[in-house]
Amino acid sequence: MTMMTPKHWNRVLIAAIALLTTWLLVLLTPVHDLLRLTGLFNSSVPAESINPPVDPDTGYYLEELGEGAWFVSGWSHNAMFVVTDESVVVLDAPPSLGEAYVDAIREVTDKPVSHLIYSHAHTDHIGRADLFPEATVVAHALTAEALEARKDPRRRAPDITFEGRHSLTVGGVSIELAYHGPAHGPGNIAVYLPQQKVLSMIDVAFPKWVPVHEFAIAEDIDAYFAVYDHLLAYDFDHFVGGHANVGDRQDVQDQLDYALDVRESARAAAGNAPVQDIGKILAWTPNPYVTANFGFERMTAECEAPVVDRWDDRLGGVDVFTHSHCRRMVFQAITE
């Protein structure tokens, strides 16, 4: 008969404590959170949040924004282009659109694509830059640095880079580019068409939806909140965010209001359960990660519930991603 060594007993004890903690979490977790954890989300979304109807035959949805500016959406990503007197200027080249992007442009005009603007370096938005091999690529200097490090042949190096602001005039159309900080990531720029009153900033505001996981994996959460002051200072009627619907000023304001609500709710939850108190409650746990995660989940749930109640009928995806937003902001609240 094999004797249990102290090491084995320690493992059994740790496993038992982990199991007990899991059961405690289940017992103390509201039903809404259990549904979220098991993937049984509320499948309904507000009617106005339903994404544009992509034509299954063409693979794209096309909408005119005025004075040569167009919004084009695929199954998961969107972009825009503007037709000038001379040529076409495109913003981004999402792989999810692929060749359908070119087809959408050709539905409108046969003019050549002269310029491709990179919103930022992420491949899900510019991974098909090869569709426009003759275009002059314009991007922020930090985007150029990121692409140089990655050496991805699908995302060729920019021909023109800038740091603060840059203006283009192509075929009588003015295009203003500006860097307002690393809201989503280094080099992520705002693209503004003043004549058409169209503004774009990718992966920051998601019109009529909440952002995806952890505020679209914002690398600098303080910069994420700060960029809204810059966006709302523009005079615009249409907003292109890279995902979901084409939006407007109210959509950008709603996104900021939602984010502020999450932040305040997270701060309140963190204040109600200081980290040192959580440590005292479960000080006997030999695995400190179990203790920490238990505390973070409780604070996250306390943040999440009121936010979901306030926003579930206003923005799509509240039941799916608010948990991750609250968890991100709980960590922010206990460290700021």
Structure description:
By secondary structure, the chain is an alpha/beta fold. It has a domain at 47-202 and 239-244: Metallo-beta-lactamase, Chain A (4-Layer Sandwich). 43% of the residues lie in helices and 18% in strands. It has helices spanning 6-28, 31-37, 99-108, 123-126, 141-150, 213-217, 221-231, 249-272, 275-281, 288-311, 318-335, and strands spanning 61-66, 69-73, 78-83, 88-91, 113-117, 136-140, 160-162, 165-170, 173-179, 189-193, 198-201, 238-240. The chain has a seven-stranded mixed beta sheet. Helix 10 (288-311) crosses helix 11. The N and C termini lie far apart (55 Å).
Secondary-structure blueprint of this entry?
Elements (H helix, E strand, L loop, with lengths): L5 H23 L2 H7 L23 E6 L2 E5 L4 E6 L4 E4 L7 H10 L4 E5 L5 H4 L9 E5 H10 L9 E3 L2 E6 L2 E7 L9 E5 L4 E4 L11 H5 L3 H11 L6 E3 L8 H24 L2 H7 L6 H24 L6 H18 L1
Helix pairs in contact: 8-10, 8-11, 10-11
InterPro entries: Metallo-B-lactamas (IPR001279), NDM-1-like (IPR050855), RibonucZ/Hydroxyglut_hydro (IPR036866)
Protein name: Metallo-beta-lactamase family protein
Q: Tally the helices: what do you get?
A: 11
Question: Major sheet, described briefly?
Answer: 7 strands, mixed
What oligomeric arrangement do these chains adopt? single chain
Could you state the order of secondary-structure elements as H and E?
Answer: HHEEEEHEHEHEEEEEHHEHHHH
Mean pLDDT: 90
Helix content range = 40-55%
